[in-house]
Structure formats: C-alpha cells, structure tokens
Amino acid sequence: MVAHERHRVAFADALKALERALDSGQSEAELIAEDLRLAGRALQRIAGRVDVEDVLDSIFARLCVGK
C-alpha cells in the first residue's frame, strides 16, 4: 500500500520503464539502458532524492516562453 500520490506516480513510472526495457529485446542496448535510467530516477524520487533535471523541468514548466 502506497500512501502518497507522488509515490504511486513514481512507482508507475518505474514500472512502465522496466516493462519497456524487458519488451525491447537484447539487440537495443541503448534503449534498455535509457529505460533502466528512467526507472532508477523514478525510484530516487520516492526516496526523496531530487535531480537537477527535475528542478529545471519544474521551473521551466511554470515559465511562459514567448511573451
């Protein structure tokens, strides 16, 4: 049982990335590595570790570019 919505979202993101890694096959090592990296980042969000990319995404999501 997961109590926090952000944890549920992070677990779902990690699961999707791991499923993609398993479904992609052995011939696409770069894609597998990227999916594993994404799964790791999702699990780090659960542990409370904040990534620079997450901070920048949050900042730029709030900016109105082009005005």
Please provide a written account of the structure.
It is built from three helices and no strands. By secondary structure, the protein is an all-alpha fold. The model has no long low-confidence stretch (mean pLDDT 81).
Features:
3 helices, mainly alpha, globular, about 70 residues
Protein topology:
Elements: H1 5-23, H2 29-47, H3 52-62
Helix pairs in contact: 1-2
Quick synopsis:
The protein is an all-alpha fold.
Strand fraction equals under 5%
Largest sheet: none
Could you give the order of the helices and strands?
HHH
Q: Cα distance, first to last residue?
A: 44 Å
Number of helices: 3
